[in-house]
Amino acid sequence: MDERQRVKNPAMVIKLMIIVVVVPFLPILISRDWSWWEAWVYGGINVSGFVISRILAGRRHPDLIAERGRFLDHPDTVSWDRLLAPLVGVGGLFIPLVAGLDALPGRPLLFPLPVKLAALVLMLGGWIIGSWALMENRFFSGVVRIQTDRGHHVISSGPYRLVRHPGYCGGLLTYFSIPFFLDSLWTFVPVALLTIVLVVRTYLEDKVLQENLTGYRDYAARVRHRLLPGLW
Q1: pLDDT value at position 170?
Q2: What residue numbers bound the domain in which 179 lies?
Q3: What span, in angstroms and rounded, lies between the C-alpha atoms of 108 and 41?
């Protein structure tokens, strides 16, 4: 079975539909508050952002979609990422789940409209940065590995001129916008835990790349920040 067939098998399609379509709308499905416009917008951005980014990345790098579709099926995935990669996925699930549960007793309006609009801009900005990184980097795998089978080399164009891991940067911007946009203080808990996981993963991934990917040390010397410009 080749890579495209593996990506298109029924089990993978079902999982993908759940992740892409169901999970973003968990706040509405759990709370059953069909008038919750912020949750509709959040779900719509996630679904459309995923679809559009994959279409654009697939047109530019057709083999990237197959690479990401295999996810944890790569035998050369570094050992620690067999734990951290699923934790990132679980964290992404718990954020909308907790937001939905937090709205069950009744949805208090915690943040004024200007704060929500600022959070919306942050959310969109995070998606744009992450999608840009996905489109620019042919080696944007779902797991940490040196992709010798795909001619792995350093990518230093696009957002990689500013930070070494712009995909994680975009993800964090999106995650931190959600509690404000969905009026959910409890959602800060999974966001904080996911931030810890992403920071640890960024550190470990950067170390692996510096030790094993030709030219990455020179790239890291030029682009000083791993995750957030001016901070780290």
Answers
A1: 96
A2: 3-222
A3: 18
Amino acid 46: pLDDT: 95
Instruction: Kindly report the length of the chain.
Output: 232
pLDDT reported for residue 8:
52
Query: pTM of the prediction?
Result: 0.88
**Residue whose C-alpha is closest to residue 204's, from 88, 69, 75:** 88
CA 108 → CA 36, 92, 183, distances in Å?
A: 11, 23, 7
Q: CA–CA separation, 172 vs 208, rounded Å?
A: 21
In angstroms, rounded to a whole number, what is the distance separating the alpha carbons of residues 11 and 112? 42
**Residue 228 covered by a domain:** no
**Short-list 207, 173, 206, CA closest to 191:** 173
Q: How many structural domains does the chain have?
A: 1
Task: Give the model's confidence band at 128: pLDDT under 50 very low, under 70 low, under 90 confident, else very high.
Answer: very high
What angle do the packed helices 81-102 and 188-212 form, to 10 degrees?
Answer: 160
In a domain, 227, yes or no: no
Find the helix or strand (DSSP H, E) in which 87 lies: helix 81-102
198 and 125 Cβ atoms separated by less than 8 Å: no
